[in-house]
């Protein structure tokens, strides 16, 4: 079914990240849908490991310049864009000096999770939502990949609930076996600043608990890894959302 507008929100994508299943799957899904005549956009964080020179990222001035308020602090939103190497597929990067300049992804050199991972996820989710609105591009399908993207449906169904911009978009969540880590215990205060409360994940805020929480806010949950770890598999089996077992990339269009 061509001529759909498909938005991929991801934390990983080949070739910007290599050697992970998620990065490979997102690359293949996006390219397949693009080559079948759909209007595809990809959004991901501009982690410090992604070389701007190598991948020819450049800032989109007309989209940059917004501020996202996180817990009463203004954080500048910088949008960069590049074409997937060798393809006419645009990838947008959410950037901010405070959150994404560091060379590591989620843990420091000693293996300790960054204390602001929660703020980075909130900034990423809200940054994607605000940028899409500024593009004046309304997706038919929003496909989420990676734990940071799980904050998107939570925000869309709470903070942005009265905003009709995304009302017809169907949200698909892919589950992957990502490394779990604790999130800041004060995340409840940061979400409360955006009038978000009552989430079960706040009882024990971790990367995994928010992914499991987000299953309650989407239209379809699908296994991104063929075999999920015990907690994710339990969440998958218990969610009331429509769900799909692992889908081969060649059949992904049937999901949409």
From TrEMBL:
Entry keyword set: Glycosyltransferase, Transferase
Residue span(s) of domain Starch synthase catalytic: 5-179
Molecular function per GO: alpha-1,4-glucan glucosyltransferase (ADP-glucose donor) activity
One Pfam short name: Glyco_transf_5
Top-level taxon: Bacteria
PANTHER family: ALPHA AMYLASE DOMAIN-CONTAINING PROTEIN, GRANULE-BOUND STARCH SYNTHASE 1, CHLOROPLASTIC/AMYLOPLASTIC
Protein's recorded name: starch synthase
């Amino acid at each position: 079914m061509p001529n759909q507008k498909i938005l991929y929100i991801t934390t990983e994508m080949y070739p910007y990240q290599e050697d992970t299943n998620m990065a490979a799957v997102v690359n293949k899904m996006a390219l397949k849908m693009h080559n079948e005549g759909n209007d595809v956009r990809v959004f991901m964080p501009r982690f410090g490991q992604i070389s701007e020179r190598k991948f020819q990222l450049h800032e989109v001035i007309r989209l940059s310049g917004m501020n996202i308020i996180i817990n009463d602090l203004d954080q500048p939103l910088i949008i960069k864009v590049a074409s997937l190497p060798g393809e006419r597929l645009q990838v947008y990067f959410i950037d901010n000096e405070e959150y994404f300049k560091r060379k590591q992804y989620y843990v420091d050199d000693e293996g300790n999770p960054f204390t602001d991972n929660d703020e980075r996820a909130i900034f990423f989710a809200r940054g994607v939502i605000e940028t899409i609105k500024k593009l004046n591009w309304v997706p038919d399908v929003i496909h989420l990949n990676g734990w940071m993207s799980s904050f998107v449906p939570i925000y869309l169904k709470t903070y942005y609930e009265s905003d009709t911009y995304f009302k017809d978009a169907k949200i698909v969540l892919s589950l992957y076996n990502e490394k779990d880590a604790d999130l800041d215990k004060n995340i409840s205060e940061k979400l409360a600043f955006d009038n978000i409360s009552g989430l079960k994940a706040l009882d024990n805020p971790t990367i995994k608990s928010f992914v499991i929480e987000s299953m309650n806010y989407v239209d379809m949950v699908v296994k991104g890894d063929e075999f999920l770890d015990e907690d994710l598999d339990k969440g998958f089996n218990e969610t009331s959302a429509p769900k799909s077992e692992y889908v081969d990339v060649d059949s992904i269009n049937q999901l949409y």
